[in-house]
Structures are given as structure tokens and as C-alpha cells.
Amino acid sequence: MERDWVQEALANLRPDTPNWYSWAKTDSSGNVIPNDQRMCWEHAIVIQDGVTKPTQAEFDAEVKRLKDEYNADAYKRERAKAYPSTQEQLDMQYWDKVNGTTTWQDAIAKVKTDIPKE
Q: In DSSP terms, which residues pair with 45 in a beta bridge?
């Protein structure tokens, strides 16, 4: 499932006021927004008194920050997919202990070498 940068950014920009916004049903020209259209900053409307809508610049900066943070951790997601399952690792550790081998250490080292921290 794709991460929803729009909703996450809007929520982060007003953390003390959860659910401060809703989605407009029409665009600025009065045209109905189809349900399958991806929502954006422009379609967010304030529904709580005393809350101001973040500027487009604030919103864009927050989306960029979130995406930069996400991209910086790409290696963690790739490593998580590459590591053997916990059950497999425990089995490797057991047999390493019994046989005096380093199968588990080798498998983990290979993932760390193949997918280095950036």
C-alpha cells in the first residue's frame, strides 16, 4: 500500500488539532471532484474553528521532509525483506551451535554487505 503523503503532511502540520481538515467535494471552479482522484493540499478545507490552513509552501516542505526521511531509510526496508525469517535464523543458530559452523553469521553478514547503509 502506498504511503499517503498528503494526509500525513497535513496531520503533521497541525499535530495539536487532529482531524482539523476535511476534503472539499468540489474544486475552486465548482467542479465535482471524483472519488478516485487523489486528494491534495488544494482540496483540504478547515473544519475546526481557530485553525488556520498551512500555506502551500509549508505543506510542500513537510511532504519533502517526509519523503526525504522515508528515502533515507530505504536500506532498512530492503534489508528487512532480504533477511531470513526469524524461524530460519533460529534454526541456523541451533545448527551452528551443534556443528560449530557460522551459517547464521554468514547469512546476516551477506545481507549487510549486499545492502549497505547509505
A: 22
